[in-house]
Amino acid sequence: MMVDLKALNSRINIEVLLNMIGYNGERKRQGKDLRIRCTIHKSDNQTSMAIDTVNNIFYCHNCGAKGDLIQLYTDSTGIAGQAVAIERIRIIDEGKVA
Questions:
Q1: What is the mean pLDDT of residues 65-77?
Q2: Residue from 86, 87, 65 nearest 76 by CA
Q3: Taking the CA of residue 77 as centre, how many other CA atoms within 13 Å lie in the half-sphere pointing to its CB?
Q4: Going by C-beta distance under 8 Å and a sequence separation of 6 or more, which residues neighbour residue 81?
Q5: Residue 65: C-alpha distances to residues 25, 43, 47, 72, 75 (Å)
Q6: Residue 53, CB half-sphere, CA atoms under 13 Å: how many?
Q7: Do residues 8 and 86 touch, judged by C-beta distance below 8 A?
């Protein structure tokens, strides 16, 4: 089965994704961005990562990590292979798991 990654990424709920990767730090709204501590390099800076909540992309101003939310999930969890991450996100997206 072919997965439309762009469509899947556009439907990901950012709050659900942050919960999936175990992020429980501070979250600050700044315009269309959600600013958080980088979930990849685990920065002490509470606002180093910006998640664009309109386009569902992220960028860390400290380590330079960037991509869509599927990439954020794979980079933050260390899951081997994007296919596994896509499947987990698709399951949640389809409402099969709480």
A1: 92
A2: 65
A3: 21
A4: 74
A5: 18, 12, 14, 9, 9
A6: 16
A7: yes
Q: Which residues contact 92 (CB under 8 A, 6 or more apart)?
A: 16, 20
Query: At the fourth CATH level, which superfamily is domain 5-93?
Result: Zinc finger, CHC2-typedomain (3.90.580.10)
Name the residue ranges covered by the structural domains of the chain: 5-93
Query: What DSSP string describes 13-59?
Result: -HHHHHHHTT--S--EEETTEEEE--TTT--S-TT-EEEETTTTEEE
pLDDT digit string, tens, across residues 8-40: 888 888 888 998 899 999 999 999 999 999 999
What is the C-alpha to C-alpha distance for residues 10 and 62, in angstroms, rounded to an integer? 25
- Which secondary structure element, helix H or strand E, spans residue 11, and what is its range? helix 5-11
> Residue 97 in 3-state DSSP?
coil
